[in-house]
From TrEMBL:
Descriptive protein name: 2Fe-2S ferredoxin
Rieske domain sequence ranges: 7-106
GO function terms (MF aspect): 2 iron, 2 sulfur cluster binding; metal ion binding; monooxygenase activity; oxidoreductase activity, acting on paired donors, with incorporation or reduction of molecular oxygen
UniProt entry keywords in alphabetical sequence: 2Fe-2S, Iron, Iron-sulfur, Metal-binding
Gene3D superfamilies: Rieske [2Fe-2S] iron-sulphur domain
UniProt-listed InterPro entries: Rieske_2Fe-2S (IPR017941), Rieske_2Fe-2S_sf (IPR036922)
Species this chain originates from: Mangrovactinospora gilvigrisea
């Protein structure tokens, strides 16, 4: 992933508090779509594909800092990608998100401690 460049996704206010936005791979040039989550002033990003059953996490349910997969109800921390509830056994890959000049910018790579 190190050769992938940061991507300007959208204006920060376009993702409402408690909301999410899935960015297709064709828009980032990355290998997977990425879903960005907003919790207050914090933004988080995970690979969109659930590591358990290949479903779109962006079609899941976001609650209390976790995203629930719509297929088998595995839950993942949006901050780290860590499995919060099985049946998934592998973490989702987390990415860095920054708000720069009012824009949401997505950067490739794993967060410290991410083993997904």
């Amino acid at each position: 992933m190190s050769d992938q460049q940061p991507v300007d996704v959208c204006a920060a206010e376009e993702i409402e508090d408690g909301g999410m936005r899935t960015v297709p791979a064709r828009e980032t040039g990355w290998s997977d779509a990425i879903t960005i989550f907003r919790d207050g002033d914090a933004y988080y990003a995970l690979d969109d594909t659930c590591p358990h059953e290949k479903a779109s996490l962006g079609e899941g349910w976001l609650e209390n800092g976790e995203i629930e997969c719509p297929v088998h109800q595995s839950r993942f921390s949006v901050a780290t990608g860590a499995v919060a509830c099985p049946p998934a056994l592998r973490n989702a890959r987390a990415h860095r998100v920054e708000v720069l000049g009012g824009r949401v910018v997505l950067s490739p790579g794993r967060l410290p401690g991410d083993v997904g």
